[in-house]
Amino acid sequence: MSERLQNTPEQNHKDHEALEKVGHERSAELAHELEKSAERGVEDDKEKAKQEALEAAAKAEKVVEQEQAPAEKHRDTPAQRRAKQKANFNHTMKEAQAHMSPTARSFSKVIHAKSVEKTSEAIGSTVARPNAILAGAVTAFALSLLLYLVANHNGYPLSGSETIATFIVGWAIGLLFDYIRIMVTGKKT
Prior knowledge:
Elements: H1 2-6, H2 9-40, H3 43-68, H4 78-98, H5 102-111, H6 114-125, H7 130-154, H8 162-185
């Protein structure tokens, strides 16, 4: 019903004409069947065809009345909007997954599970901020390179944890920068 309310007047008029055409065609078919049964002299077929013609006409009339009824503007409640959004999301996901390979479809179902999405959003908004990760990566690259060059020049052995340690230092600097920027501007990106 809500889809009909969103149609333009031109679409409603076209739909109305199409329904009338279908109704007339069905009525003509039933009238032809009625004539055939009358020629055969079978009273049961005649009554049945007459009843079908009346039912078809009633259905067509009901649909035409619904199409002609004024479109009432109504506001959805937040619960109705959420339900519609959820239904739209589920429909879109099913359509998208239908075009995927079986492994991609399985992976998509896992990563779009409610619990995984909620966890990802929580981590993404706190710990795994893009600026913090970028700062960590750049710092890890620069400091690891510097440490490697100094250690290589002076003959010191490296343990292998330098990259992780420099990433953590850069990540902390990026996170600190991000929070200071949010406190100053008051906006999240």
